[in-house]
Amino acid sequence: MGQHTVEKIGGTSMSDYRSVRDNIIFKPTQESSMYQRVFVVSAYSGMTDKLLEHKKTGDAGVFALFAQERKQNNWFPALQDVRSAMLDINHTLFEEGELRHKADTFLSSRLQEAQECLEDLHRLCQHGHFSISEHLATVREMLASIGEAHSAWNTAHLLQRDGVNAVYVDLTGWNSPSHMSLDERILDAFKDVDLSKELPIATGYAHSETGLMSTFDRGYSEMTFSRIAVLTEAREAVIHKEFHLSSADPRLVGENNAVPIGRTNYDVADQLANLGMEAIHPKAAKGLRQSGISLRVKNTFEPDHTGTLITGDYVSDAPCVEIIAGCRGVFAVELFDQDMAGDIDKFDVAILKVLNQFHAHIIAKDINANTITHYLAINLKTLKRVMRVLHERFPEAEITQRKVAIVSAIGSDMKTTGMLAKAVKAIAEQNVNVLAMHQSMRQVDMQFVVDEEDYEKTICSLHKELVEVHNHGRAICLAS
Question: What gap in Å lies between CA 277 and CA 243, rounded to an integer?
Answer without folding.
Answer: 12
